Amino acid sequence: MLQSCARIIKCNTLVEYFCSLHSTFKDRSHTGDIKVDEDIKNSEWASDGVITCLQYNPDQNEIAYGSSDHLVYIRKFSPEGSQMPLLNTLQHDGEVTALKWNSINKQWVSGSEDGTIKIWAADGMNDLIQTLSEKVAITCLCIDSVNGAIVAGLQSTIKVYDGERFRLMQTNVGHTDSVRDIIHIPERSQYVSCSWDKTIRVWNEWKQVKKRNASDKDKNDIMEVNVPQKLAHTYQDDLEELGED
Q1: DSSP string over the chain
Q2: What is the pLDDT of residues 205-237, one digit of tens each?
């Protein structure tokens, strides 16, 4: 009996993998190559380049992935290959390095080596909403799970953009090499980043502050805060507290 199947991308080709003795894949040859059935060889290509990042949109049951061919591919997700049609492709001018689904604002957010962060509509033709241009490659992205802010790694710098008006709200400086990943911990109101400089750093999150003396007409207006944030904590601090070198 076949167990539940999953969808994987192997050698840039969409194939099905069944966790059973009836696996789609055959035995490996002495060279380490995977022999596949003829119908697998003729299946649809996932992309024309290396797959660099992957993200799932639970709101619309879509899967998207970025590629070195400068494109983001969006497909309807299904464990059945015949039910994973290509819905759209989104264009960058360089290798796509990061991709996130903004569940707060219902938008796709992609970053690239071309130094841009692009925000795309989720419906229809995924029209481009905004382009944020930087002078360096985008190394990673994170979405603030409270306010939908876009947290981006730009080499050794971390920048936070308002998720609605896309204005720069916070700049975090402290890493000395490329930032490779960022997560948001809403319970602690902090962002955590890791870098090729061999450090993990903790930063205070950017907060949207409502005006306290606002009239009933503009109570929902947001006061912008754009100040450099001090480093909240580093992994090195823990080692020092423990008395380790």
Answers
A1: ----EEEEEETTEEEEEESSTT-SS--B-TTS-B---HHHHTSPBS-SS-EEEEEEETTTTEEEEEETTSEEEEEE--SSGGG--EEEEEE-SS-EEEEEEETTTTEEEEEETTSEEEEEESSTT--EEEEEE-SS-EEEEEE-TTT--EEEEETTEEEEE-TTT--EEEEEE--SS-EEEEEEETTTTEEEEEETTS-EEEEEPP--EE-TT--GGGTT-EE----PBPEEEEHHHHHHHTT--
A2: 999 876 565 554 554 444 444 445 556 555 555
To the question of pTM greater than 0.85 for the whole model, the response is: no
CA angle 31, 37, 43 (to 5 degrees): 110
Q: What is the per-residue pLDDT across 51-95, written as a single tens digit (0 to 9) for each?
A: 999 999 999 999 999 999 999 999 999 888 778 899 999 999 999
Percent of the chain with pLDDT over 90: 60
| Listed residue (128, 126, 204, 220) closest to 166, CA to CA | 128
